[in-house]
Design brief:
Helix content is 36%, strand content 21%. The structure holds ligand BES and manganese (II) ion. Manganese (II) ion binds next to loops.
Length: 457
């Protein structure tokens, strides 16, 4: 006997090529949220999403303005009495730079072998299209087991700055039994994964000003403190020799890992060998008393994301720069907050910055830490769905990335998320040659169909 679930799964299998064509279509829109230059493209991606939601049969589709990039909303609420799933997504992507390291153009998606290459293929246009495809498969075959709402934002990659307010204002509209969030990736193609913790983020820009103009390094070197040097001295002091962050009070609110959590981290297949292979470094680095997966999922960190000063073009220029800048961000764990972290950085700079330079610290964006409820019906439905497709129980982990919406939905709308995804560690997200492993993606679509039907039971 074929039931509605099987019919939907068959539909998905028969429509894989079209799902893929859809994904290619949206990857071709360079929706880079961080730079104003791409604002029209970001909007184009929002309109594309709205158009697709209408095509899926969603009602009340809206491109809703925020203080920044818009949120795309749509709903299908015709299954009275059935649970409601709020589907989260983001249609923005990270910048593709450095461009010369891409083998193919980032916004001209190409499938080669088992992979589709392009910016956003894995993070997360691919995941958004997977949810569209699963819902289409259930809807178009006539037995949609749940109600759905969509909230697709355009500012995830820049900290979801305006989403919090959006959720607050629209809390009633967004009410749901669970939020499905497929933005959290998986541990490996053979390891279906549910992520239950994400780190927060405090992203800052540190500007150091030296002389009133770029100087001749021969005529003035040795008389003024080079701001590039002052900057890197400050940056170097932000860690001690054991890889611990030195900002005053940085660890005070850090929740200690329990013995059970530490055991769970040890069981994950993402061991030291995994990190060595993924990164290609000769030796790992970090707090020695924690294993790498703990340092990523359960401990806070501070990273330099970029450095700028002086002459960096071809050849040489003997200059003593007037200015130096660093982009610095801290990944945070419960119960740290981005606001406190920013103040700790200010306190560090006040104490350590030399008097012979001027400095300025700017907060670029923030994201809260999140731990999600593992006992929700959504988590069970997802775990069973992943099991049905992969034939193995999913792994549960805390991961190091950040997704602003998860904590914002908890705080402002009381909606818990189930976090999963079909992106792999080797997909090069945020890096050149981002790609999506298509066989895993197709399995993901099937798992999402199972999830919908499990939710509806
Ligand atoms: N999808 C990622 C986050 C992620 C990746 C979580 C893999 C878990 C596993 C997301 O799009 C992302 O990169 N977010 C940014 C957010 C930041 C700018 C606030 C991040 O983590 O850098
Ligand atoms: Mn993402």
């Amino acid at each position: 006997m074929t039931d509605a679930r099987d019919i939907a799964l068959t539909y998905a299998r028969q429509n894989r090529d079209r799902f893929l064509a859809d994904l290619k279509d949206v990857i071709a829109i360079p929706s880079i949220s961080t730079s104003d230059e791409y604002k029209p493209e970001v909007l184009r991606a929002a309109l594309w999403m709205a158009d697709r939601l209408r095509g899926l049969g969603m009602d009340n589709v809206e491109v809703m303005p925020t203080g920044g990039h818009p949120v795309v909303y749509g709903e299908w609420l015709k299954n009275t009495g059935a649970p409601t799933v709020l589907v989260y997504g983001h249609y923005d992507v990270q910048p593709p730079d450095p461009l010369d390291l891409w083998d193919t153009s980032p916004f001209e998606p190409v499938a080669r072998g088992h992979h589709l290459f392009g910016r956003g293929s894995s993070d997360m246009k691919g995941q958004v299209i997977a949810t569209f495809s699963a819902i289409e498969s259930a809807l178009k075959t006539g037995r949609m087991p749940v109600n759905v709402k969509f909230m697709i934002e355009g500012e995830e990659e820049i900290g979801s700055e305006n989403l919090g307010k959006f959720i607050k204002t629209n809390a009633k509209k967004l009410k749901a039994d669970i939020c499905l969030n497929a933005d959290a990736g998986m541990i490996g193609a053979d390891y279906p994964t549910i992520t239950y913790g994400l780190r927060g983020l405090a992203y800052m820009e540190l500007r150091v000003y030296g002389p009133n103009k770029d100087l001749h390094s021969g005529l003035f070197g040795g008389t003024v403190h080079n701001p590039a040097q002052a900057l890197v001295e400050l940056v170097a002091g932000m860690h001690d020799k054991n890889g611990r962050v030195t900002l005053p009070g940085f660890y005070k609110k850090v929740r200690r890992l329990t013995e059970d959590e530490r055991k769970a981290f040890k069981r994950l297949p993402t061991n030291a060998k995994f990190y060595l292979e993924q990164t290609g470094v000769p030796k790992l680095w970090g707090e020695p008393e924690y294993i790498p997966s703990e340092r990523v999922g359960g401990r806070p960190t501070l990273e330099v994301n970029g450095l700028l000063s002086g002459w960096t073009g071809e050849g040489s220029k003997t200059v003593l720069p007037a200015y130096a800048m660093a982009k610095i961000s801290c990944r945070l764990v419960p119960d740290q907050t981005p606001e406190e972290t920013f103040k700790q950085m200010q306190a560090y700079l006040k104490a350590k910055a030399p008097r012979d330079i001027r400095w300025e610290l700017i907060s670029l964006h923030d994201s809260g830490t999140a731990i999600t409820d593992l006992k929700s019906a959504g988590v069970k439905a997802m775990a069973d769905g992943l099991h049905a497709v992969w034939g193995t129980r999913p792994l549960f982990r805390r991961e190091g990335g950040s997704i602003g919406a998860v904590v914002q939905l908890q705080e402002y709308a009381g909606v818990e998320s189930v976090l999963t995804g079909f992106g792999l560690p080797e997909d090069n997200i945020h890096s050149p040659n981002e790609c999506l492993h298509l066989p895993t993606w197709y399995k993901g679509i099937d798992a999402l169909i199972h999830f919908l039907f499990n939710m509806g039971k």
